[in-house]
Amino acid sequence: MNILIIEHAPGRAKGIEKTLLSIDPNVTATVARIYLDPKIPDFVDFDGIIVGGGPMGVYEIDKPEYSYIKAEADYLKNAINSRQPILAICFGHQLIAQILGGEVIRDEAKKEIGWYTIQKTDDGKTAKSMMGLPDSFTMFEYHYDRISKLPPNAIVLATSDLCDIQALSYDGLPISSFQFHPELDAALGNEIFESSRDKLTNMGYDVDQILEQSQSVSEPYRLKVFENFLKSIK
After folding, report:
1. Pairing with 18, which of 7, 50, 212, 227 sits 20 to 30 Å away (CA)?
2. What residues have CB less than 8 Å from 28, skipping those under 6 apart?
3. What is the secondary structure of 1-26 as a DSSP string?
């Protein structure tokens, strides 16, 4: 199985590759580092696409420095129209929503940085992309932006206390979309928080408390997100 991973900043594909190979060593993962080379391999050569996170906002794609994101959006429109299976995470989740007619805003008051409890909606309890996950589970979050207006045909599968749209599916489209980061286990997640310790401390976060909260991370369940995606395209 050939999977294309679109990476928006250095290191963002690390957890995705690691997780894919831990589930199926026979998966071939190709990383398109579009911040270095905006040309993305033709999606027809892949069984599925994973659109990862990024530090920019989807509302910034018209800025010259993010011209590669605008090109990516056009690429993803074509992939969606061709019914290419897509797994979208964080920035990717927001980008897909914007492409399909939704709106994304920066919302400092509802930012999530740490390990957060995610709750399934009633639709999420029967969604194939959420199979094997309990009604409530813990995942890594690090975002300031959120989807503020749903695209047509979007179905909310999960929420959190601060973010109403934690997971989406789209009626008639093979898209699995998540605000949280299922690719990050406790070790990788805490590595990110530790590297941002000074910044987070200045923002008022207790980094040691965040690191302790990682003990509640739902390790088997984060893998289910990728297992479900791979099963959907076999």
Report:
1. 212
2. 1, 2, 3
3. -EEEEEESSTTTTHHHHHHHHHH-TT
Bridge partner list, 140: 115, 181
pLDDT attached to residue 220? 82
Q: Does the active-site annotation cover 90?
A: yes
Count of Cβ atoms closer than 10 Å to residue 29 Cβ: 18
How confident is the model at residue 217, as a pLDDT?
76
Q: What local confidence, expressed as pLDDT, does residue 215 receive?
A: 80
Which of 7, 8, 90, 112 is labelled catalytic?
Answer: 90
- The label of the residue with tokens 């690390």 reads 14
Strand pairing class (145-149; 103-106): antiparallel
User: What is the CATH T-level fold of the domain 2-232, as seen in this structure?
Assistant: Rossmann fold (3.40.50)
Residues contacting 69, CB < 8 A, separation 6+: 8, 34, 54, 56, 58, 60, 61, 95
Q: What is the pLDDT of residue 40?
A: 98
Q: What is the DSSP string of 184-209?
A: --HHHHHHHHHHTHHHHHHTT--HHH
Give the pLDDT confidence score for residue 63 in this predicted structure: 93
Active site residue 93: no
Residues in the chain with pLDDT < 70? Answer: 218
| pTM of the predicted structure, to 2 decimals | 0.94
Q: What is the largest CA-CA distance in the chain?
A: 46
Q: For residue 233, which of 13, 72, 23 has the smallest C-alpha distance?
A: 23
Catalytic residue check, 181: yes
What is the token pair recorded at 131? 């199979």
